[in-house]
Amino acid sequence: MKIEVVRAWPRRFESVELELPQGSRVADALAAAGWVDQADTLAYAVHGVRVDRATGLKEGDRLELLRPLQVDPMDARRRRAQARKTPG
């Protein structure tokens, strides 16, 4: 089965397409990609749904390595709103 493994940083990402045997799990995909011990990985998701290393994968899955947030989303939203305000 074919799956995609993705990890991202601000302004860049890396994606690997893998051919794995049926019955493979998240841990198998990480090993095949060479991304087993990623220090900045907080969790994993398949198509945006959080999973663990024992979760089974199926054809076409997209496994995402999740990192801690760099900025609180509410703070970022406030900053964008403040930047849009014009003096006047």
**Percent range for β-strand residues:** 25-35%
Walk across the major sheet and give the strand order. Answer: 2-1-5-3-4
Number of strands: 5
Low-confidence parts lasting 5 or more residues at pLDDT below 50? none
Global geometry? elongated
- List the helices and strands in order: EEHEEEH
Query: How many individual helices?
Result: 2
Number of domains: 1
Q: What is the CATH H-level superfamily?
A: Beta-grasp domain
Q: For the residues shown, what is the average pLDDT?
A: 87
According to CATH, what is the topology?
Answer: Ubiquitin-like (UB roll)
**Second-tier CATH architecture:** Roll
Q: For the record, what CATH class applies?
A: Alpha Beta
C-alpha Rg (nearest Å): 17 Å
Q: Please identify the structural class as seen in this structure.
A: alpha+beta
Biggest beta sheet attributes: 5 strands, mixed
Distance between the termini: 59 Å
Query: Which percent bin holds the helix content?
Result: 10-25%
Outline the structure in words.
This is UPF0125 protein ACFQZQ_02475. Belongs to the UPF0125 (RnfH) family. With 88 residues, this protein is of the alpha+beta class. The protein is built from two helices and five strands. The chain has helices spanning 26-33, 73-84, and strands spanning 2-9, 12-19, 43-46, 49-51, 62-66. A five-stranded mixed beta sheet has the order 2-1-5-3-4, with helices on one face. A hairpin with a 2-residue loop joins β1 (2-9) and β2. It starts with a strand and ends with a helix.
